[in-house]
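Explain this one:

_____
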Amino acid sequence: LNGQIVGRIEAPKEWQSLEASLPNLSLKAGQNQLELHSVQGCLIAADYIPNSPDYRCISFAIQQIQLNP
């Protein structure tokens, strides 16, 4: 968050949904930047999904972000 490491989230298995939380984020007034990095690299969907034409390198997907004060 804004250039500082604020947490680590480990997924137990690839291609599984995971609910994650980063408590106590210190957001500053105005714009903030949250960067996410995958230390394990990426997976190719076609290697795991039968008949998939998707050969993109996918690290993770994010959906349903919620910020609570």
Q: What stands out?
A: The chain has a mean pLDDT of 86.
